[in-house]
Please model this.
Amino acid sequence: MSADLHTLGVADGLARLNADTLTSRAWVDALLARADTHADLGCYLHLDAAGARAAADAADARRAQGDGAPLLGVPIAHKDIFVTTAHPTTAGSKILAGYRSPFDATVVAKLAAAGAVSLGKLNCDEFAMGSANENSAFGPVRNPWDRSRVPGGSSGGSASAVAARLLPGCTGTDTGGSIRQPASFTGITGIKPTYGRCSRYGMIAFASSLDQAGPMARSAEDCALLLQAMAGFDERDATSLQQPTPDFVAEMKAARPGATAEQPLKGLRIGLPAEFFPAALDADVNAAVREGLAALERLGATLVPVSLPRTELAIPVYYIIAPAEASSNLSRFDGVRYGHRAESPKDLLDLYQRTRTEGFGAEVQRRILIGTYVLSHGYYDAYYLQAQKLRRMIADDFQQAFQHCDLIAGPVAPTVAWKLGEQGDDPVKAYLADIFTLPGSLAGLPGMSVPVGTGAHGLPVGLQLLGNYFQEGQLLHTAHALQQATDWHRVAPAGV
Model:
């Protein structure tokens, strides 16, 4: 068995599979062994070795018969927020411990139809609520760059698995930054597509108007290959976009009008909001982001100043709207229909109270309480409706900015990854870490995190790129051009 199989990304592995110099079974075996070696990271909640090997063998047989499925034989895994028939689904919560879904999420089914081989389910913050992956009921995930630090959240298991070379790519979800922030903290590439681009059917809901699925991988090219399989209209999801799915790989590789080999981004205008570079931004993060922006300039892009004046309002707006939707969505977990049920309840009220107290963690309970409060009589108008009005204004700010630029860039987070437990007693401090990702989420815009070097303690820093609606291809093109000219995305954590 080749010793370098864990280093293969999606595109690299596909090239070797297509050239018959690699089998899916060999690739899967190498990654399963690696998962055991790095079990201390806490990435997997369920690792299905037997199922993965059987699926890999089937993929190899299909390839031998001439099957040309686009991801045939590529090993992946799914964030445990997507329901699956083959694996348990917990959403990182005790209240769903042992739950088996009777159907697959659309994203899971689409990737399987494209030929991808699932190794199992990846750890995440409980019901995707968190910025550190410390809120999982089954233990935290550790950052492979420094095991004493968080990988970011809520898709921390996904990010850590890709960064540690346990997988070439995987699924994540982004509600307020949960693909982009952990991608930044672990030095990988992740994209949150336009809201509605990927189906939410079978994705356990946190905040329905914000949740969006997306891929996490080593490079923009890998993300484009995965997103191509994931995206598309789904009649079972009322929020799914009835838009044709473009060829993301072709758009990523297409030449811009007037561009040259040396300057593939010639003519691209990248907006820099002053609000994304406040005095409170850590100097090391600012330096890394500026270095990434300078690289984009060398590739022909022009940096232009823009303004997003309501950036600071994104945090209070998000932490009203998202908990309000969570309080409604999580009301289904009552001990009656599925999941955990309190033993020997005295009556129905006791069943509800004890089931939810025993099953939900502290952060989930906190957000349910906030959400129920802002939706209650007397406070709905004062809080929830006002937040929705501000959300519309935040989206309008982006449209004003996009009149002067094609993309918007800035840091993903104000700091590098913090120590495990460092913010456990101060949830508001953790909420503030989402200041740069929340505006794009509230507006439903596509966004990426692209590695641009390291900051303090040698920890990764990501550059955030935001595009206008349906401009995933332009984001991927820009990130790909940057990654063709730099090696930041190829740097692996020491010791993995």
The chain has 16 helices and eleven strands.
